[in-house]
Structure formats: structure tokens, C-alpha cells
Amino acid sequence: MQILSSLGNLGSFPKGLLLGFPALFSIIDPIGNSVIFSQMTSDRTRTERRAIAGLVGLYALILLLAALWAGSPILHFFGVTLSALKVGGGTVVAAAGWRLLFQDEQVESHTSEAQEAAAEQTAGESAGISDFAFFPVTMPLVVGPGAISVAITLGATQRGNGMDLPYLLGVSLAAAASCAIIVVLFRYADLIGRALGPSGSRAVKRIVALLLLSIGVQIVSVGLQDMLVSFVHAASHVAAAAG
After folding, report:
1. Closest Cα to residue 155, out of 59, 58, 74, 56?
2. Cα 224 to chain center, whole Å?
3. What is the pLDDT at residue 158?
4. Of 59, 41, 206, 50, which Cα lies nearest the Cα of 114?
């Protein structure tokens, strides 16, 4: 918490990078998803798995950048305030972390669901590598509603009355780094799954879930603080006008 609060003393670019990377890395969970990916692509060749991994990283980056740069203006068009977005997005992140932290056999159940979706997607000859890479791997496995909510929240955090370009570039670099890690881990997913084993995979999942829960609580607290400050300012102006 002290590390996150100290980011306010940094410049916009490093703040965006240092805040965005742990948030996006946690919600995307490249390590845990690499284990699931190894199960989903167990019937494919190594060349196909590596091609799919590269496409997943590209698709995930495009989706995250779209949410980062365009998500906030779209919400502004619908009248959603930044404070409400922080509270809503932080709640989604915290709920995802809570669910992963206390839900037993999450990796196994998620793997089963992903395998069923993969089987449906690849049942026909028309299902190519690029289609499979986008669905069900990129969406909803890697970039689901939680990841999109986090990206929109991060993109809206420093906008204020205008666009903070260095901050957005820092968060964009964090998204690119997270997607690069996805590509590397997915390319060697079979080795990671064998190395970690079932118990190691569950341990990694719990650690990532705890970090995700902490980040979600932090985002919610910042949103509530902004709401309280706005309420106090509005009340003070009303009191001054009445006096």
C-alpha cells in the first residue's frame, strides 16, 4: 500500500508504468493461464502453439490499448464519472481476486471450461489458428471483462481535465510488457505446466489472487476518496453561497 501511495511523487510516465504493470499482469495472470493454454493446445503441434501464442499477444495488446485510450471517452459520453469508474473497476478487480483466492480447484475448473470452448471452436475444418487464438484464448481467457475494466480504469485515472500523454504511454508500455510475457510463457506453456505441477500452479494462483485483491481495494479507496472530496467541495460552496 505504501508503494502504491508513493507513486504520486513520481512523474506521469513512471507512475503509469509502475501502476499499470502489476495491475494488468495480475488480472491477465500469464503464469496461471499458460497452464490452461497448455491443456487447450495439447492436440496441436509446437509450431501451431507458437503461432497461436504470437497472435494471442497481438490481439490482447490491441484490446488493452483500445480500452486504455478509448474506454474513458466512451464512458464520458455516457455520463460516467471517473470516480464511479474507479469504484466500479476496482470492485471488479477485487471481486476477481477474492474469487481466485478462495475458490478451490480454480485452475482445473477453468481448464475444463476452456477445453470445452476450444473443442467447439476447433470442431470443424474452418476453424483456423487465427480464429482459435482470438476465441477462446484471447477472449475470454486472457482479456476478459475484468482485464478490460482494469484497462479502462487505468486509462481514466490521470486524465483529469485533459489527456495525460506521458501517463498513458507508461500504462501502454506496461500493457505491451504484459502481452510480451504472455507470448513467451504461452510459447513454453508445456514446459511451465510440467515444471510447476498441480500444487505449484495453485500456489502461483493464490499469490496472484492476493495481489489482485490488494490492487482492487486500492483503486476503490482512491475512487471513494475522490467522491468524498467532490462532495465536501460542493457542500462548502453551497454553505458559502447560503451564508
Report:
1. 74
2. 21
3. 60
4. 41
Q: Please tell me the distance from the alpha carbon of residue 112 to that of residue 110, in angstroms, as a whole number.
A: 5
pLDDT for the residue numbered 212? 67
Predicted confidence at residue 175, as pLDDT, reads 96
Q: How far is CA 110 from CA 8, 59, 93, 99, in A?
A: 37, 21, 18, 12
Q: How confident is the model over 208-230, as a mean pLDDT?
A: 78
pLDDT in tens, 105-147: 544 444 455 545 555 544 443 347 888 899 888 887 788 777 8
Instruction: Provide, rounded to the nearest whole percent, the portion of the chain with pLDDT above 70.
Output: 77
Task: Quote the number of domains for the chain.
Answer: 1
Q: CA 64, CA 60: separation in Å to the nearest integer?
A: 6
Give how far Cα 87 sits from Cα of 23, 197, 199, 228, Å.
15, 36, 34, 12
- The DSSP code for 44 is S
Is residue 1 in some structural domain?
Answer: no
For 232, the domain range is: 10-242
Residue 161 lies in a domain: yes
Identify whether 5 is part of a domain: no
Q: Is residue 57 part of a domain?
A: yes
Amino acid found at 98: W
Q: Give the side-chain half-sphere CA count within 13 A for 192.
A: 19
DSSP notation for 124-150: STT--HHHHIIIIIIIIIIS-HHHHHH
pLDDT for 126 equals 35
What per-residue confidence (pLDDT) applies to 1?
Answer: 41
Whose CA is closest to 64, among 211, 174, 215?
174
Rounded Cα distance, 135 and 204, in Å: 25
Distance CA 165, CA 24 (A): 19
